[in-house]
Amino acid sequence: MIHDSVIRPNLVTGDKTLHDVTTEICRPIENKPSMSWSVGFGISVIFLGLLGLTLFVTEYTGIGTWGLNKSVQWGWDITNFVFWVGIGHAGTLISAILLLFRQKWRMSINRSAEAMTIFAVMCAAIFPFFHMGRLWVGIYWVFPLPNAFGSLWVNFHSPLLWDVFAISTYFSVSLVFWYLGLIPDIATVRDRAKTAGRKFWYNFFSMGWTGSVRTWNRYEVVSLILAGISTPLVLSVHTIVSMDFATSVVPGWHTTIFPPYFVAGAIFSGFGMVLTLLVIARKVMNYQDYITIGHLEAMCKVVMLTGTMVGLAYITEFFVAAYSGVEYEQYAFINRATGPYWWAYWSMMSCNLIAPQVFWFKWARTTPWFIFMLSVVVNVGMWFERFVIIVTSLHREYLPSGWVMYSPTKVEIGIFLGTFGLFFTCFFLFSKFLPVINMSELKAILKNRE
Amino acid sequence: MANKQTYWKGEEELLRTKDFLASQKNEFNEALPLDEVLSENNLGLSANRRDFLKFFGFSIAAVSLAACNKTPIRNVVPYLVKPEEITPGVANYYNSTCGACSAACGVTVKTREGRPIKVDGNSNSPVSGGGLCSTGQASILSLYDTERLAGPQKIKDKTASDVEWSAIDGDITKQLETINAAGGRIAIISGTIHSPSTLGVIADFSAKYTNTKHITYDTVGYGGILSANLTSFGKQVIPSYNFDKANVVVSFGADFLGTWISPVEYTKAWASRRKVDGLNKESKILKTIQFESNLSLTGSNADYRFPMKSSMEAIYVTSLYNAIAQKAGVAQLPMVKSGELAGGAIKQSAEALWNEKGNSLVVSGSNDARIQSIVNGINLLLNNYGTTIDLDNHSNQYKGVDADFAQFATDLNNGAYKAVIFYNTNPVYNSPMSEMISAGIKKASLSVSFASTADETAIECQYIAPDSHYLESWDDAEPKAGVYQLTQPTISPVFKTRQAQESLMTWAGLAAKPLVDPFANKTILSQKAEASVYYLYIKTKWALMGINTDAAFNKALHDGVHQMPAKAATVPAFAANLSAIVTDLDKMKVDTNAIDLVLYQNVAIKDGSLSNNPWLQETPDPISKVTWDNYVSLPKALAEKSGIANGDLVNVIAGSKKISGLPVFIQPGQSNMTVGLALGYGRKGKIGEKGEFEAIGKNAFPFVTYNGSNFNYVTNGVKIEKAEGKYELAQTQTHFSIEGRDLVRETTFGEIKENPKAGNDKNAPHLYTLWETKDYKKEGAPNHHWAMSIDLNSCTGCSACVVSCNIENNVPVVGRAEVRRRREMHWLRIDRYFSFSNVNKINYEADLFLKKDYEGNKITKEKGLEAIDAIEKKKADKANYDHWENVQVVHQPMMCQHCGQAPCETVCPVLATTHSTEGLNQMTYNRCIGTKYCANNCPYKVRRFNWFRYNDNDQFDFHFNNDLGKMVINPDVTVRTRGVMEKCSMCVQSIQATKTKAKRERRKINDGEIKTACQRACPAGAIVFGDVNDENSEIHKLFKNERSYRVLEELNTQTAVKYLVKVRDTEKETKA
Prior knowledge:
The structure holds two protein chains of two kinds.
Chain A: H1 18-30, H2 35-61, H3 76-87, H4 90-100, H5 110-130, H6 135-142, H7 159-192, H8 196-206, H9 213-246, H10 258-284, H11 293-324, H12 327-338, H13 342-354, H14 362-366, H15 368-395, H16 410-433, H17 439-444
Chain B: H1 11-15, H2 18-24, H3 34-38, H4 40-43, H5 49-68, E1 91-97, E2 106-112, E3 115-121, H6 134-138, E4 153-156, E5 159-162, H7 165-181, E6 185-190, H8 196-208, E7 212-216, H9 223-233, E8 238-241, E9 248-252, H10 263-272, E10 287-292, H11 297-301, E11 304-307, H12 313-328, H13 345-355, E12 360-364, H14 369-381, E13 389-395, H15 402-413, E14 417-423, H16 427-430, H17 434-443, E15 446-449, E16 463-464, E17 475-480, E18 483-487, H18 500-507, H19 527-531, H20 533-545, H21 550-559, E19 561-563, H22 578-586, E20 595-601, H23 614-618, E21 626-627, E22 632-634, H24 636-642, E23 648-654, E24 657-666, E25 674-679, E26 686-687, E27 691-692, E28 705-706, E29 711-712, E30 714-726, E31 730-731, E32 746-748, H25 749-754, E33 786-791, H26 800-808, H27 816-820, E34 829-836, H28 861-876, E35 887-894, H29 903-907, E36 913-915, E37 921-923, H30 933-936, E38 944-945, E39 981-982, H31 988-1000, H32 1013-1017, E40 1023-1027, H33 1034-1040, E41 1044-1045, E42 1057-1060, E43 1062-1064
Parallel strand pairs in B: 6-7, 6-14, 9-10, 9-12, 10-11, 14-15, 15-16, 20-25, 22-24, 32-43, 33-42
Antiparallel strand pairs in B: 1-2, 2-3, 4-5, 4-16, 8-13, 17-18, 18-19, 20-30, 21-31, 22-25, 23-24, 23-30, 26-27, 28-29, 33-40, 34-35, 36-37, 38-39, 41-42
């Protein structure tokens, strides 16, 4: 017997049966790719090629192909890194924290959100690697391979090192969590497979899943354990990323508010990206019954909450700068709002603090095209937030003699666009070869069990 | 029933002996043959067949794998006969004389394995005093210049072809004889020569070819002073100016700290009188008052700087004469137009000068002999002759008489000279009579140039007989009367070049002289030296001077300098008719509303003879911080009026001359209605195999005018018109204001006499650190703690240290495009900030949020309203930019501060930047992976990243790109690869070398024994380096000095570099 709350609306609409769920969610995997998929994938691959080209130019010629200079030694590279890591936050938050809070509405979206996390972290990882002047030496540092440079012992004081640990841990746990959730669904696809090749590969990746009670039991237990492990990671990753800045002496970076403010920002941008993807995906793949307006509305509320939180943080920074009495801090913030990069600051403020306030209105939360527009605005705003923090702090620091301007080169822009190519190429492949919605979990919340 | 049979292995088991039972407790109860297995014997050669095959197979595979990697073949060629003085890895030093300009500073040349790698000042020389300017520092690269001619050239249709020396010697000698026999005139045109031996050679040449005339042409000359001294005192010389004996100096446009006559010598003297430590209340420092149009280096260091229109200099100088004459009670000059500058500058200067009568000095940068005569008159009224001005021990550094050269140009163009020889001069490029010279050369039947590159003049001649570089040559010099210096070769000629003196001797038939040693007891120095006929010639000349033994000559050679006793300075009789001169000057038409063009020399590039030197091109102008270009320096008011902005191009029209497309730089401090333009740019010429040389900047020499007796570098009534197009100048510093930050501390001389802590009495910040405080004096293991002190009061910003640092530390040149991207690699830079000196005229919006007024002072409650009121008033007056001509300047050398608690060290993930036990912040290039985090976290922004590979890269076609240029690389310093961070190391290679030396000699390092490259270069002695743990060291005392402070002390970085407060000798407080 299943007891569902009478007042709680159905999380899946359309009165789906278990069979409906299986067929509908497996449809994209089993059918030939649609026209829109092919076009989208093609464009993504072109951008992926752009990524390869620009990274090759960077490595062949030098970081000098970027617009960085003697004062602004991090620019678009680290902006994009933090941007992508931030996007990578929603997935684990949805799957882990919402799992622990037993928010069942997460079940329709957690798979794609987790995939997004993994792809976003992959995109993010490109930047710390390629921003290194000597990638070929840096590899030895990240992976302790035997080498001729002597022992490249690390400095545990350096937040960059913490970053490596934080992000690699987050990435591996997220990957395992995602893959674990996929196993029953891969088994379903395996069982429905018609060709030998599909049978072999889906069989291989389902790792011999039988669907027995014992396996289900273990599945549930491991899910819970991984959720428990992931939950602090959601908070720790961006906390540690924020420490790249917070532990420095750069005015505008050196603030204790950064950890919570970065985490809130990451969730904000992560949900923004999930919304961007799902509003399109549910339409293109005809999943409106699974990813309902209710889902979108819930996410909009999270966006509004976290947007307001980061807005509060922006204002708090100003207050603290003024209250600190440190002229360098004060100037850094005045310069953000009124200096040569004022447009970036006000883009950030209007996109991140002001724009999400429209979600106080139910219409705004329940109109998919509007949500889509606003989710893009949120992501633009969050990109600007990182740009503002990194570039406007560095370009005018302590000694006015070192004050400079920074603008990106074509190569930097190419790399950034290229990471979108990588992201969407992965996402398209994912939507073609793996079930985008967690079928097995979704079936558990269906009303119609016939 | 189960049969339980008991088996036993041996007697022991059956009998269950005690030993057996004990052994049963072990896992392996029988002794294992471990010893046997592990023993050497069995591991050795006694392998069985299978093992043999295994070893054999492995060895074959290993050997063949190892053989895949081809070992590069490196040849080490040992000396067949090792020169006695050369030990690989150990530097040799030779004293010599700088050949970069005719100021002839004494230098010490550092050589490694027989190649010169660094030129520093020789402290024995009264001219250099141990310092050396940027131009002199960089001149070493001309030795390794790929544009140098590899041997004598014969030129036809501007195309040079290699010939043998014997061939051109034959041709030239034959022609000279023919010309001389026919009574044709021969001219030798040279820059100033004060070498007694070279002058002797020319005299001997003239004796052989009796129609020879020697004409001196100085690119930027001092003919005005020479002529004025001839009319005033009957001596056609430049006097010695003793800045160290003056208490006040008034300079009209003479940039004596930057480019004027002998800047290194003057900087040394000036700085020696700017020291404030240990002075009492009666003491005086050298008050410096500057009147000028362009903001020069001297102007930027002056206590008072008054912007003036240079075309009106005559009026101001005469007014000053009259003001002083009035005080002296002598007749004033009959001047029709009298002039005074805003604020009564002339009157105040006269007052200041008169108060220091006999200890004052007035100098003028004008090349007008009439103005110089009046200046002479002023100095005479002030009794300065014999004290601050010395005509008896005069300077020989510039001897070019303008009228002689002008006459020569006319004669040459008229075909009066049949033979012309150019030595160390390039008048086709750098004289206003370029066209006449160029056309005249064609009319001579013989034309020869001694240029070492195919320069603009040489390429017009028939022959080029390339002169050797001064580092390859023997020579002597007499830069000042009684001061003799020697130039000695530090390397055998890189190419088949020959000293000009030897060429002249060869052509005059003097080279065949039997090799008679001029000294009685002859010793052989070296075969090479002995082979030089000019070397023997020098010895002959020196023997006449009284240096007639090897011991005396070798001492002079060792010291680099031989000084005759100075003559007593006398007060000369004055013979000039100043009234007539003033009447003549009054006739000069000066349009006060027209724009003046004031030509000047850049501190690094100077007259342009070394303008293909990448180090100099990349040395930023000390004032504008522009590299790689000359530009029209425009006052803000004029720029606003004519709608010209930074980045625009303009055409400059002066009479019939026009230069199009010059970039504009709006220069704070540029006098209103004047514009500046640097000479020495726009060199053209065919350079080696690379073809046409891309001109850097534009040539401004056509704007030099000739007034019938002198060349004039100021033109009244030029037009500036906006041209099409945009151009970005490559600047190393783009923000001019210090934003009221406490980075440069300054005070006035009056205040510091009262309170030694004046200007430095800010409350110490509350400091707290998370990290363990470093202790360099630890019990049991006391160590050095290297530190540096920089006296902002001595530093003039001349940038000699910047060039010196670049050379010492193999800092790459990155070129104009990369400087535009703000990626210059200089480890040491000089920050320069402007402020408006006149508070009432300030048009700068204060930041009310920061509670700062426009000068950066805290707005207190009492001052608040007043300050805000001032700001509001100024807002209404926004259109007026006149006050932009009146700025104060500070220079602050900035390099790695070697923080005790370094922000860079904690953030490096791979420990590539760490702290040494001696207090140095050190870079390990091998470890660096280039995250650039350290540079971001450096509050001083001194870390430089290798954005590209700067060596062996065609994109960076400077000296790191060819085998010849690489010879200047310091072998003690790594050439950094792409992708690593670098920064000032405090010349750790010198520290290590000295430590090793001291250890070998079993002694402690003496204070002052280690000198960093910047310290060695500094003519002002502003930089002191040493061990702060050594309580007797100078640095220890300087760190305790009341004036010393740390930049950004509140960050608690505990820097090892401290600055000393700048002191201005002004009446009022600098900060209102």
